[in-house]
Amino acid sequence: MTETAVPPGKAPATAPGARTTRRSLPRRVLARPEVGALIGALAVYLFFFAVAPPFRQMDSLATVLYQSSTIGIVALPVALLMIGGEFDLSAGVAVITSALTASMVSWQLTQNVWVGVLVALAVSLGIGALNGFLLMRTGLPSFLVTLGTFLMLQGLNLAVTKLLTGNVATDSISDMDGFGQAKAVFASSVGIDGVQVKVTVFWWLGFAAIATWVLLRTKFGNWIFAVGGNRDSARSVGVPVGLTKIALFMSVGFAAWFVGMNQLFSFDTVQSGEGVGNEFLYIIAAVIGGCLLTGGYGSAVGAVIGAFIFGMVTQGIVYANWNPDWFKFFLGVMLLAATLVNLWVRRQATRR
Amino acid sequence: MSDTTPAFCAPELVGSSAAPPLVELRGVGKSYGNVRALHGVDLVVRPSTVTCVLGDNGAGKSTLIKVVSGLHQHTEGEYLIDGAPVRLNNPREALGRGIATVYQDLATVPLMPVWRNFFLGSELTRGPWPVRRLDIARMKRVCDGELRAMGIVLDDLEQPIGSLSGGQRQSVAIARAVHFGARALILDEPTAALGVKQSGVVLKYIAAARERGLGVIFITHNPHHAYMVGDHFTVLRLGTVELSAARDEIALDQLTHHMAGGAELAALKHELAQVRGVDTDELPKDPDAAPEAQAEAEAADEADGTGGPDETREEHTA
Ligand SMILES: Nc1ncnc2c1ncn2[C@@H]1O[C@H](COP(=O)(O)OP(=O)(O)O)[C@@H](O)[C@H]1O
Ligand SMILES: [Mg+2]
C-alpha cells in the first residue's frame, strides 16, 4: 500500500499495491478438482493393463464402463449434493425402492410397465424431496436425516415386498406390455465395432455433460457451490438455500430411479434386500473425484472419473484372477490416497 | 445508482442542502425483553459522508446497525429514510431502499471465484429458459469495472476469493454493495480482525465509497481508524449517545478520551495500582487521552502509508 488513495473513476490501470499477480498455469490446472482423480485413473488403468492381459480387450473395457455407469449415474448427483454441503445415505436402498415400486405397481395394478415406471419416478423424487425437507425443517445434519430414511427404506423394501408377493423378490414382469420398450430405454446394448456397450454408459456420459453444464454455467450451479461453501453468506445475498438443497436431493432421487429401472429391466425381478452399502460407493466415487467432504468444492467430471476408477478396480481384480476379497482393501487405499491428494491440491489452489 | 445520488459532490453542498438525510434516527431505542440495549439515539447519515459509530464492547453498536439494516425493529423513537418514517421487517426491505450491510464474516464464499462471489444471488443470465445460462463474459466485465472504480485491480477474477487478503475480501464486498444499488452502506467492524496494512486497504475503500456519493456508517472501536475517514463521530456508551460531533468540532485525542471513558480509566488506573503495583505515572493522565498509544498508532499508520484515505479526505473537504 504505497500509493495514495486513488480518486474514483480515475483509477489507473496499474495500481501496484492493489494488484494481485496472475496465478501460474500449473497452479490454475491443479486448482481443478478432478486433476488428482485423472492421474489416479491413469495409474490404475496402466496397472491393470500391465498385470491382467484380459483387461486389454475392448470387451473388457465395455464391461468396466457398464460397471462404472451403474455407480456413476447416482454418483453424479451425489457429488453435486456433496458440493452443496450434504450427504445422502439413503441413495443405495432408494435404487431398490424405485425398482420394487415399478415392479409391484405394474404387477398389482396394471399390465403396463410404463405406469409402474412413472409411479416409481414420482416415489423416488418424493423420497428426495422428503430428505431435503426434513433436513431444512429439523436443522439436523444430513448424515443423520438420511441415515434415518436409509433404515426406513431398507425396512419398507423387505416388509412391503414380503407382504405383497409373499417372497423376498418380485415376480417377473417380462411378459407385460411395454417391457420391450422400457428395456430398450434402460437396459439395452449398442454395438460399436462389434463390441456390445450397455446403453447406461451413454446415459451416464450424457447426464455427466448436463451436470457439468448446470454446475458451471447456470445460476443454480452457482447456488450449489455457495450453499456448500458458506451457507450463511449465500443466504445473506439472497440465495434460496432450502430450495437449492431440496432440488439436489430430488436429483439424487431421479438418478436412483434411473438405475433402479436399469436393474429391473436387466433382470426382470428385483431382490428386496439389495442396494445396502452402495450409498458409500457413490460417496467414495465423488470423493475420489475431488469433492470436498465439507462442501463447496468439486466437479461432475471428477465423479465420472471416480466411478470409472471404481469400475476398473472391480473388474480388474477379476481379470487379474485375484481373490475378489482384495477389492475392498484396494478401495480403502484409494479413498485415503484420493483424500490426501485432494487436500494437497486444495491447499495449492487457495495458497496466497 | 450514480444517477440517483450526486456522485462526486463536495459533502458541504449535499450536507447543507434542504434535502432530507438518507437515514435518520430520532430518539431510537431497542429493548430485548428487559434489556434496554439502546435508548434515545439520534443519528444522521447523508450522502457522501462517513458517519462513524464508536463504542466499547456492549455499548450497543451492533444493536444500532441491526435496527438500521432491518434485522431488528426499534421499540421506541423514529427511523426515517429519505425523510419518511419507516419500519423495516427484514434486511431485504432495507436493501430495496438502498441500505446495504457488509458483515465481517458473512461477506463471501471463500472457495468461489471472485466474479462468482460478486454476482452471487444476482447472477446475470442470457438465453431462453431450458438453456438459460450465466453471462460469464458480461459478469466478468462488470465485476472488473466495478472493482477498478473502487481502486481494486485484480488480474485474475477466477481466483478463489479466499486467496485474497482479508482487506481485499471486504473491499470486494463493499464494491459489490455499491454496484447493486446501495446508497447507504453499513460496515460492521470491517477492520476489527485485520492488521494495520489490511485495515488501510479497507479504509481506502471506505473513502472511495464516500467519493462515489454513498452515505457510509462505519462501526468500529478504533478511534484512529475512525478519525482517518470520518466526517461525523457518534460515540455510544451503555446504549446511549455519549458524544456526537462533526470532524471540525473534535480532535483525535478527545475522541480517544471519550472512547476510553475518562472516569473509567481513572478507576482502572487505581485498580491496577492496587493489584499489581503498576506505576500509575506511566499511565495516561486524566483528562488527556493515552498519548503514547496514539503516537504509536500514528507512527504505524505513517509507516504503512495508511494515511492515504486521510489525504483523499483533505482533498475533498478543501
Ligand atoms: N439478542 C439480544 N438479546 C438480549 N440482549 C442483547 C441482545 N443483543 C445484544 N444484547 C445486549 O445489548 C447490549 C448491547 O450489545 P451490542 O449491541 O451487541 O453491543 P456492541 O456491538 O457495541 O458490542 C449488551 O448489553 C448486550 O448484552
Ligand atoms: Mg458488536
TrEMBL record, chain A:
Keywords attached to this entry: Cell inner membrane, Cell membrane, Membrane, Sugar transport, Transmembrane, Transmembrane helix, Transport
Region of interest called Disordered, as start-end residue ranges on this chain: 1-22
Pfam families reported for this sequence: BPD_transp_2
Subcellular localization: Cell membrane
Biological role: Part of the binding-protein-dependent transport system for D-xylose. Probably responsible for the translocation of the substrate across the membrane.
UniProt biased composition (Low complexity): 1-19
TM ranges: 29-52, 64-82, 89-107, 113-135, 142-160, 195-216, 237-260, 280-298, 303-320, 326-345
Protein name: Xylose transport system permease protein XylH
Chief subcellular location: membrane
Membrane topology value: Multi-pass membrane protein
UniProtKB/TrEMBL annotation, chain B:
Keywords linked to the UniProt accession: ATP-binding, Nucleotide-binding
Keyword DNA damage annotated: no
Cited PANTHER family: CARBOHYDRATE TRANSPORT ATP-BINDING PROTEIN MG119-RELATED, SUGAR ABC TRANSPORTER ATP-BINDING PROTEIN
Skewed-composition ranges (Basic and acidic residues): 277-288
Residue span, ABC transporter domain: 23-263
One function term, GO molecular function aspect: ATP binding
InterPro entries: AAA+_ATPase (IPR003593), ABC_carbohydrate_import_ATPase (IPR050107), ABC_transporter-like_ATP-bd (IPR003439), P-loop_NTPase (IPR027417)
Stretches for region Disordered: 277-318
Pfam families assigned to the protein according to its UniProt record, in alphabetical order: ABC_tran
Classification lineage: Bacteria, Bacillati, Actinomycetota, Actinomycetes, Kitasatosporales
Claim: Nucleotide-binding is one of the keywords in the record: yes
Name of the protein: ATP-binding cassette domain-containing protein
Xref: CDD domains: ABC_Carb_Monos_I
